[in-house]
Amino acid sequence: MSKAHEIVEKLRQKLARVGSEPGLEEPDAAAGDWPGAGGAQPCPAAVLVPLVLHEHRKNSPTVLFTRRTDHLHHHPGQISFPGGGMEEGDSSAEETAVREAEEEIGLAPERVELIGRLPDYLTGTGFRVTPVVGLLHPPIKLKLDGFEVAEAFEVPLAHFLDPANHRQHSIRINGGEMRRFHAMPYGDYFIWGATAGMLMTLYRLLTE
User: Fold this and answer.
1) Alpha helices per DSSP H over the chain
2) Cβ atoms 140, 51 nearer than 8 A
3) 161 DSSP 8-state letter
4) Which pTM was predicted?
5) Distance between alpha carbon 83 and the CA centroid of its chain, in Å?
6) For the chain, does the N or the C end have fewer beta carbons within 10 angstroms?
7) Based on C-alpha coordinates, what's the Rg of the chain?
8) Phi/psi at 33 (nearest 5 deg)?
9) pLDDT means over runs of 10, the chain (208 residues)
10) Angle between helical axes of 3-18 and 193-207 (0-180°, round to 10)
11) Which residues pair with 180 in a beta bridge?
């Protein structure tokens, strides 16, 4: 068994124990509207955390990300996982994540093997996000929605499992309190906020 498949099997076992219990609830430090402050109910949302199993990469799966276009209302220009708010016809977070991935990057649902959920993540923009982990089995053909997605790219999962690549930063919200947030830069890509927070959860699952 390759190192990449060992990682995947370990993750399957860990996710089976996570279930759907809320865990990490850390605000996205990019936003100033922390929903708990006003008592508002966060909107349910889901993202797909896509791990790509390339035959030529035996040591590590890769993680597929998108870079959002600069004109979007929520998180413009940020690195993110494909996903969005749950719609009335969605029966589960898994359905939302797969549907949004197909809409945003043209990812065919039949190329996705869902293996579990990470704990929900509460963002400062008023969303309770369920990260759904999926294995992508190449060949994969993507077709980006140019309105929402500026580009899609992959990063070796091993990069995020190395503590040397973990950062913490602080930001002052609306001139008030300081909030800390995770960041995991990769080359020219600054991966931070909710996306980095979910990656930290993945890191803890795989290294505990």
Assistant:
1) 3-18, 35-38, 93-105, 157-160, 193-207
2) no
3) T
4) 0.87
5) 8
6) C
7) 16
8) -105, 65
9) 89 82 39 43 94 89 94 78 94 96 97 95 86 95 95 97 93 69 94 94 93
10) 100
11) 170
